[in-house]
Design a protein that fits this description.
Three copies of one chain form a homotrimer.
Chain A lengths: L11 H24 L3 H31 L7 H27 L8 H19 L10 H28 L3 H35 L1
């Protein structure tokens, strides 16, 4: 196998992470549209969500192929691996949430879910803006600080949703279904924070 | 501590993974028998399942002991560590599923569960066949391709089971119990895929 | 950035892990008090639990900052990283359990929960005693052996609680709530075992 040295110009790793992040943004846009849609539209949107996730998987695989065939990498190999898999987790959680909404055939979602999803949309945008800046590691501090703040907002929204759900929803089956959806959304927020923490760690190490 | 160099003949790491995988196959066989058994037989089968898991744990610990005492390893130390722990996850998920069937004192399981378990059986066989081939890294491509295909089948079976469960099962307690079992089976399929992806990554890196 | 060599006297890493472990002990003490408290007292105790978790987070971040700025580390960088994050998982699981008790507005907890929490208290004490011994790696064997034994006790307590819950609790909503709490406690026991296994691995490697 040809092992080639990375030239400074080879930003391929960051380009691929950026491409993946664009699909994550697309995923949160689809999720947002899902909230206001009826069952028929949601089936169609779930298809689009699956397509976004497949596109993200492809760029992630291309990233890993490159990583495995590159001798000199811009950061530690493990750090790059963790970046890619953390970003992949964000996409998976978003897709699972949309998936469960359709699978459980949920009618209207509690209002608090809008807050969860709008926080995720902002996390996705910030992440997509941050990926290209990994090449220089400049100006990433605001990114991880803001993500941590958003994760706290997501956490509060989640806890209120959970308390309201158990207080107000008399039907246990509905409780199980809605808990499944808001758990998936909460886990997406955690994944964005996990990715941001990984980037903070890299930045500190490389600085 | 004596640190000894691996000689080409030292295939001990792969022998231990292969031995562990044989217990995983045994686990899926026991799980298959569980489906058609009554409560009394299941108690006995759950014991056998625990025995298989203990045997797998022992070979895994022997693997880790060797890994920690070996200076030159056939692949990256971390890769070997992840192989062993991914294989351990497969066994744990299988044991948990069987365990919950008994713990929840479940009567007959929905038909779709047979499909989940038959896919897991095939995953276990393929995995057991693949382990000895790690030494040469030859002919592993079919393995990881087929595992990925099986995981997709498992995923479809899981999603149908979940949708049917929430549509057809009126008793919430039964929903919680059955969801616990099919979630554990789905997570076993994910673990087999995770292991296969890890092996693909190693093969690409070492090739 | 100034990269400084660790002198033998620099036990800062272990001091920080020890400080974190002290907060984990505090967390289990608060959890224990929660069991016998009424709803109002629990709100106050949940605050204290959150404070303990924040204190643990700070020492963990200080640990990671140091790790990233230290050129020569006492153990493999990855091993130290995993130690800190495993210890962080223990704290998170404990805080989540206490959090759910308040969030779900649970009345009296089933007696078996006392057993779960008392095992966690012992795990926390043993862990706090073990951290300072990491510097010499002496006398840690008893620690990981006893933790493994405690995890088995926790597992049995958990399985009995689960079986009793599904047999005796007629209200599905209460089942979901209580299952959430005992699952979090079980996952805390797993985290203590995971940390102990990591330390065993390091001890074997460094010995």
């Amino acid at each position: 196998m040809v092992r080639f040295r990375l030239t400074p110009r080879d930003g391929a790793f960051f380009d691929l992470l950026a491409k993946t992040a664009v699909e994550v943004v697309r995923g949160t846009e689809i999720l947002t549209r899902m909230l206001g849609s009826d069952r028929t539209q949601r089936l169609e949107l779930a298809e689009q969500l699956r397509a976004a996730e497949n596109a993200a998987d492809e760029t992630t695989h291309e990233f890993l192929r490159r990583l495995n065939q590159t001798f000199v990498t811009p950061f530690d190999r493990d750090d790059l691996y963790h970046l890619a898999s953390s970003l992949d987790d964000c996409m998976d959680d978003i897709e699972e949430a949309g998936d469960l909404i359709v699978l459980y055939d949920i009618g209207t979602l509690p209002p608090g879910v809008d807050k969860q999803v709008s926080v995720l949309s902002r996390c996705a945008e910030l992440t997509a803006e941050a990926m290209p800046r990994l090449a220089s590691l400049d100006g990433l501090r605001d990114y991880w600080v803001e993500i941590n703040g958003l994760e706290n907002q997501a956490d509060r929204a989640y806890r209120h949703l959970l308390a309201d759900l158990f207080r107000d929803e008399p039907d246990p089956i509905s409780v199980i279904k809605l808990k499944g959806v808001i758990d998936a959304l909460e886990s997406a927020a955690d994944s964005f924070e996990h990715l941001a923490n990984g980037i903070e760690t890299i930045a500190l190490k490389e600085s």
